[in-house]
Amino acid sequence: MGWTGVLRRLFAQPDEVMLETGAGGELVVARMRAWSSPLLLLLPLASHLAGGASAETWVGVFAACATIACSMLLLHLAGQHGRYRWLPFASGTFDISIITASLALLSLYDPAAGINSMVIWSFYLISIFLTALRNDGRLVAWVGLLAVLQFWALGAWILGGHSAAQLASPGYGSANWGNVIQRLVLLAIATIVTATIIMRMQRLIDLAGTDSLTGIANRSWLGYRFPRLVARAQARGEDFAVAIIDLDHFKRINDEIGHLAGDRALCHFIDMAKQELREDDWIVRLGGEEFALVLHDTLPVARARLDGLRRHVADSGFDPGDGLAPCRITFSAGVCAFPHDGPNLLTLLGRADKRLGIAKRTGRNRVVADDSQVQGLDRADALPAA
């Protein structure tokens, strides 16, 4: 994969599994932020006990209280579990900006500390690494870039506004552009490492949810995404259809032609199906020669589309290769609709499977969308039952 492919993958919209787990990661980060932010009150307390100026102490108290309030607000929003897609970007911006503001305030008392304070500066790295919990490469790039730009601007402001003597500190050493550049390089490296982790996580999720033979989604993929589909359909008052497709006499292909030809037949069917399906339709391999389809249509429309797919597959013919004679592939299907036939995946698959059984018992090569009768029989196309 070239640099163009890497960048395209990094800035691509994460899939629903990544976003779902990322919402949980945002909540974890929000809790960590909320639990640790009260510790900021120790800073003005320490300043007061050390005999610091009253104004300085009250500024510290105000800043700490404002940070705590913002942290609690972010925790409340994160508790909505993915409702606000912009929240990770807002909280990431907040974290980086708080770190930069802390360094800027520190530089008012010791200019060198604003650049060389490793304790505060290290929170830049922590904030970047924590973006890995949100599972979004775009967020990693944003937070990393923001950290680089803010620290560069802070360094330019401190170095440009103080003399060399002012930039020398007994406790923090000498501040110079060399120190700034070194830290900028470290921030860039941390961003690259975190982005690599995100891309590897996405790759593993892709592999876990993909059927290795056909390249389409598998049953685990369907089970994870289906509840979100149901929630969206309920919120919008929409219908959708679920179908189970079973290739007719597939065992005969495996036994008489060979398992390699059987694999080719499965891939041939998927190629034919993709020509008929829309971009928002789902096709999933349940196992063996059985597939599930999710069509964003009413039941009558979905049944008509499936019947069109059935005819297309039957008319296309299948060449098994290796000099073997071409053969004909057909399928039987049972289809049902949400919410009329069931509220969840298990119920809908059960209803579709029952109708698939009707299609099998009544001659195969047909689509059944009703429990009580067989619709749209086409006896001229039907294959004899095995």
TrEMBL record:
Enzyme Commission number, as recorded: 2.7.7.65
Catalytic activity: 2 GTP = 3',3'-c-di-GMP + 2 diphosphate
Classification via Gene3D superfamilies: 3.30.70.270
Keyword Coiled coil (UniProt): no
Alphabetical UniProt keywords: Membrane, Transmembrane, Transmembrane helix
Pfam families referenced in this protein's UniProt entry, alphabetically: GGDEF (PF00990)
Highest taxon above the source species: Bacteria
Coiled coil stretches, renumbered: none
GGDEF domain residues: 238-372
InterPro entries, A to Z: Diguanylate_Cyclase, GGDEF_dom, Nucleotide_cyclase, Rev_trsase/Diguanyl_cyclase
Gene Ontology molecular function terms on file: diguanylate cyclase activity
Transmembrane segment boundaries: 57-79, 86-109, 115-133, 140-160, 180-199
Stated name of the protein: diguanylate cyclase
Originating species: Solilutibacter oculi
Organism placement in taxonomy: Bacteria, Pseudomonadati, Pseudomonadota, Gammaproteobacteria, Lysobacterales
